[in-house]
Amino acid sequence: MTRLPDPDSLRLLVLIAELGSLGRAATELGVAQPSASKRLSALERLLGLVLVDRTRRGSTLTPDGVLVAGWSRRVLDEMAALATGADALRAKRDAELRVAASMTLAEHLVPAWIGELRRHRPQLYVGLQVINSEQVIETVHAGEVDLGFVETPRTPPGLATRVVAQDRLVVVVTPGHDWADRPEPLAVAELSATPLVLREHGSGTRETLDHELRRAGVPAATALVELGSATAVRGAVVAGAGPAVISELAVRADLADGRLVQVAVADLDLRRALRAVWPRGRRLFGPAADLLAATRSAR
User: Fold this and answer.
1) Phi/psi at 123 (nearest 5 deg)?
2) Mean pLDDT of all residues in 132-150
3) Do 125 and 237 meet the contact criterion of CB atoms below 8 Å apart?
4) Per-residue pLDDT tens for 164-198?
5) Among residues 127, 131, 126, 144, which one has the least CA distance to residue 104?
């Protein structure tokens, strides 16, 4: 047998067993008796069995019909359990959203996107993990979050991605630093050779910088100190620890106020795309899809 009975046909057979009448079973299903009779006949042809004896006094299940009706009850009970479980999963999905975001995105962009989402879903609980880009990718692959945001220069394998914002890394120093008032751009080789205040390995900022330095034919950056967030890097530079390469988002106010100075670097392109990521082949639904939509409306 290549085809399976449809649930309504199984439900009709069970109702005939319970009510003892094809007419009453049809009424219970909300269909006309001729339609119910045709459905029962189609079920018998599909199974190759006589299921009901029809007489003027009513409808009686045959021995085969009794067996099939018992199996049908179990099938319908399991289908009801499936529907109930799916409703519960959907309610859980619509009640909470699990997000992981890299540091720069979490500090400067994601809160506004979540705020936009919660204007339309005020009862929604949003759990946000703030970790570096490499950890975000691992977390999304593991299915621990519904949506991730990263700042890596590469498209993570096995994940679907969408660009949600553009960013640029900048070299910054304090106004008293030797690089602050130099008349010509800094050579990329000098940047590579100078110890810098850097994000840790695994961060999108560090990966972007090292990727572009290698493309320029010079070694990866040397760390004076490694810190776990853009805020920490910015604070260290302001305190005079040394130069840093950092997201423009993190130091925009400092550059405008003169607390920090941007240093031009010759032949180095530090622009980057910031991306949302989720498992490839999975369609986003509910709050995850709404959050991704909020990134577009916020641009």
Assistant:
1) -90, 0
2) 94
3) no
4) 999 999 999 999 999 998 889 999 999 999 999 99
5) 131
Kindly compute the dihedral angle of the four CA atoms of residues 131, 134, 137, 143, in this order, to the nearest 10 degrees.
-60
Q: Where are the domains of the chain?
A: 7-92, 102-275
Do 21 and 28 form a contact (C-beta atoms < 8 A)?
Answer: no
Measured between alpha carbons, how far is 158 from 138 in angstroms, rounded to an integer? 11
* CB burial string 70-87: b at 16+ within 10 A, e below: eebbebeeeeeeeeeeee
Those residues whose C-beta lies under 8 Å from the C-beta of residue 6, and which sit 6 or more positions away, are none
Report the distance separating Cα 236 and Cα 46, nearest Å. 76
- In the 3-class helix/strand/coil scheme, how is 230-274 assigned residue by residue? HHHHHHHHHCCCCCEEEEHHHHHHHHHHCCCEEECECCCCCEEEE
Cβ 101 vs Cβ 130: under 8 Å: yes
The CATH architecture that domain 102-275 belongs to is 3-Layer(aba) Sandwich (3.40)
The whole-chain average pLDDT of the chain stands at 90
Largest CA distance in the chain: 106
Backbone dihedral region for residue 165 (phi beyond 0: left; psi -120 to 50: alpha; all else: beta): beta
Architecture of domain 7-92: Orthogonal Bundle (1.10)
pLDDT for 80: 81
- Measured CA distances, 5 to 41, 45, 76, 277 (Å): 12, 11, 11, 41
Do residues 40 and 9 lie in contact, with contact meaning Cβ atoms separated by under 8 Å? yes
What integer pLDDT is reported at residue 95 of this predicted model? 62
- Say how many CA atoms lie within 13 Å of 259 toward its Cβ: 13
